[in-house]
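Lab notebook: predicted structure, single chain.

Context: the supervisor wants predicted structures on file for every construct in the current expression panel, including those that have not yet been purified. This is the next one on the list. No modifications to the sequence; it matches the entry in the shared construct table.
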Amino acid sequence: MANLLEMAELAHRAIFSETREKPYVSIEEFISTAKIQYAAAMWIYRNEQRATDGMFEMPSDLLSETTLDVKNNEIDISKLDYLASLPNAEWLQSIGGVNCHCKYYKTTLNLSKILCNDDSMPEGDKPFLVVGKKIKFPKGAHAEKVDIIYANTGEDLDAGTIQVNDYVASKVMDKLYQLYGKPATQDVTNNNNPNQ
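Prediction complete. Output recorded below exactly as produced.
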């Protein structure tokens, strides 16, 4: 498992090691770019897994569990650091926890309108949809607090790290080199001319 922040620092040093002037890209900008590329690489990784395996299972090291308050049939998720680059709110893996007394199923705004008066679902089943930074429950939730399992961004704020799998890490490194240039050539002749 690679550390995204260490990778970004390593790539920054490799690209700008021969520069005597101040690098045109600061380390902070470089790390921001690495985070964006990480989100894009996770999206590509997800699509490749679906294409080869027919499905995508969220890596367990990205899963977090939390309990959030339900107010006015919605949950505020603005404070969650979730992997928003995944399509169709796939970052939201489970509502209600693993032993929930009722089943939650994901819907969309259009489906929710179409099925507004549908009473064919069992009483305990509850639809939900993600709208902006809220999870909405058109038919209410089963409790005032609900457990959710979601895909985080891999960031451990206490440790200052973002752990990424090696495949995704290699894609991020390749993209950083593509955007900012290859690592400086090492001067093996010791004559201050790396091209000879």
